[in-house]
């Protein structure tokens, strides 16, 4: 199992990102990253993947700075789902998923399994650019599944954006299964209901600073979230416990009588 640690203070792209201290997403658990747009969530994930080198502080994978690892070594231990998957060639869905194995040993079986887990088997031969935005996002998740090794690190940046609820629920189940198998999962999302289903722990970043890190049962609540996100929050009771949802009606002006 890989150990991922953010040793603060961390400065990346000239911005102070995290409060002093250490944030360490746990192996076998899903840490959901929440916060306002532009707050630093994507920067944190890109830095965790070794795509940004901290100017100060360190992001460590099993004690070694992530950004100094050779690309093949990083690919063997972590996979990233970007917020906006980009494919510059006329690839099929299967071709895009196979890109997850570019720096790993070839494995048609792993590719087929990743397609099945993401509900894409029937779309495997379709052109990637012919898919909807939500379908393309699921292809990006499948690519990460094809790459990801058990016990590694799985980084997801808005992996559920534009994905229909049944498909999002299926992805939540598969990502929870990765954590159960020992993965360290760090996932950014704006969807509080998805966060409620997915998270063991919550990390909130706002204005480039870490404002909270702790158990989901303490932070994904009507009491804690308004001060973290700046929006009213309601709670619903789901089949697996409490679900947090943004209460937009709480900030809208009253309708004229």
Explain how this protein is built.
By secondary structure, the protein is an alpha/beta fold. Helix 4 (108-117) crosses helix 5. Strand 10 (201-206) and strand 11 (209-215) form a beta hairpin. Helices cover 30% and strands 25% of the residues. It is globular and about 60 Å long. The model has no long low-confidence stretch (mean pLDDT 88). The strands form 3 sheets. A 6-stranded mixed sheet has the order 7-8-9-4-10-11, with helices on both faces. Strands 1, 2, 3, 5 and 6 form a 5-stranded antiparallel sheet that branches. It has a two-stranded antiparallel ribbon with strand order 12-13. The chain has a domain at 4-88 and 151-166 and 173-250: Rossmann fold (3-Layer(aba) Sandwich). The chain is built from 9 helices and 13 strands. It has helices at residues 41-48, 71-77, 93-98, 108-117, 133-147, 165-180, 192-198, 216-219, 225-229, and strands at residues 4-12, 15-16, 22-23, 30-34, 56-61, 64-65, 78-81, 153-157, 184-188, 201-206, 209-215, 233-238, 241-246.
């Amino acid at each position: 199992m890989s150990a991922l640690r953010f040793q603060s203070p961390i400065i990346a792209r000239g911005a102070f990102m995290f409060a002093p201290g250490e944030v360490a997403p746990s192996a076998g658990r899903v840490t959901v990253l929440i916060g306002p747009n532009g707050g630093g969530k994507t920067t944190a994930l890109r830095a965790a993947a070794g795509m940004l080198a901290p100017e100060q502080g360190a992001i460590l994978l099993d004690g070694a700075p992530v950004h100094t690892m050779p690309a093949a070594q990083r690919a063997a231990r972590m996979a990233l789902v970007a917020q906006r998957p980009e494919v510059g060639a006329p690839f099929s869905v299967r071709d895009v998923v196979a890109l997850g194995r570019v720096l790993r040993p070839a494995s048609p079986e792993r590719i087929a399994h990743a397609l099945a887990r993401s509900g894409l088997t029937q779309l495997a031969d379709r052109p990637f650019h012919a898919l909807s935005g939500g379908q393309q996002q699921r292809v990006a998740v499948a690519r990460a599944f094809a790459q990801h090794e058990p016990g590694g690190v799985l980084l997801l940046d808005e992996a559920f954006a534009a994905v229909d609820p049944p498909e999002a629920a299926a992805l939540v189940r598969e990502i929870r299964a990765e954590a159960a198998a020992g993965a360290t999962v760090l996932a950014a999302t704006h969807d509080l209901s998805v966060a409620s289903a997915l998270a063991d722990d919550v990390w909130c970043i706002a204005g480039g600073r870490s404002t909270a890190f702790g158990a989901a049962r303490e932070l994904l609540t009507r009491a804690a979230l308004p001060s973290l996100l700046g929006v009213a929050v309601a709670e619903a009771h789901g089949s697996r416990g409490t679900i947090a949802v943004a209460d937009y009606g709480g900030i809208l002006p009253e309708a004229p009588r």
